[in-house]
Write a structure and sequence with these properties.
Layout: E1 6-9, E2 12-15, H1 23-57, H2 71-82, H3 90-103, H4 105-108, H5 119-130, H6 142-151, E3 156-159, E4 170-173, H7 179-190
Antiparallel strand pairs: 1-2, 3-4
Length: 202
């Protein structure tokens, strides 16, 4: 890009090629932004209503857990607490889950896209799963839920607001039959607390 050219007329100077937006342009931008906000808010409203209806269908109650994107771990922690199992905090669950996923990468990579399996992306993903302070760097998905299902040796059920699910949004993650043995061995290798387990359904 070449140097800017200026044309001077009296004491006024205008930079060629940098025409300020007119009121019409600004108004159009504002209207487009408002329209997009309305669309986003409408989608959030539909998702909330769908989730509430499906939760009622399965005799569940929605409980807000804050906005730091650790919702999967908070939900598991809450369910364990209701069963009298305390101490499974973010600082306990996330590092153990990341280390276990890394240790059994040949299995857990099946949950990822080809791009996520690339070495650099894979290392970043594990670091994001490990992160337990402040806002989450990665939302929990089937990868994390499958790991937690194995770690606590039970199926995990969750409700989704996705449209078109034949089972009214109920998803059941079953743990791999081989993984409980792997997890017990992993706990011994890492000197993890033996109480880091539940034989009861979440």
């Amino acid at each position: 890009m070449g140097p800017r050219t200026r044309s001077c007329s009296g004491s006024q100077q205008n930079t060629v090629g940098e025409v300020p937006p007119t009121d019409e342009h600004e108004e159009r931008n504002v209207q487009e932004a408002l329209a997009q906000t309305a669309i986003d808010e409408g989608a959030r409203t539909v998702a909330r209503d769908t989730l509430k209806r499906r939760a009622q269908l399965h005799n569940l109650r929605i409980e807000e857990k804050g906005g730091d994107s650790h919702c999967v771990q908070y939900s598991v922690q809450d369910q364990l607490r209701q069963q009298g199992i305390d101490g499974q905090t973010l600082q306990v669950m996330r590092p153990a889950m990341a280390a276990f996923i890394e240790d059994k990468a040949e299995y857990f990579r099946e949950f990822l896209t080809d791009e996520e399996r690339e070495p650099v992306t894979w290392r970043r993903l594990l670091s994001d799963i490990w992160h337990s302070v402040g806002d989450a760097r990665r939302w929990g998905g089937d990868l994390e839920i499958s790991a937690l299902s194995c770690m606590f040796q039970c199926p995990i059920q969750y409700i989704t607001s996705r449209q078109g699910d034949a089972s009214e949004g109920l998803v059941i993650i079953q743990h791999n039959a081989s993984l409980p043995g792997w997890w017990r061995q992993f706990k011994r290798q890492c000197n993890l607390d033996n109480d880091f387990i539940s034989n009861r359904s979440l």
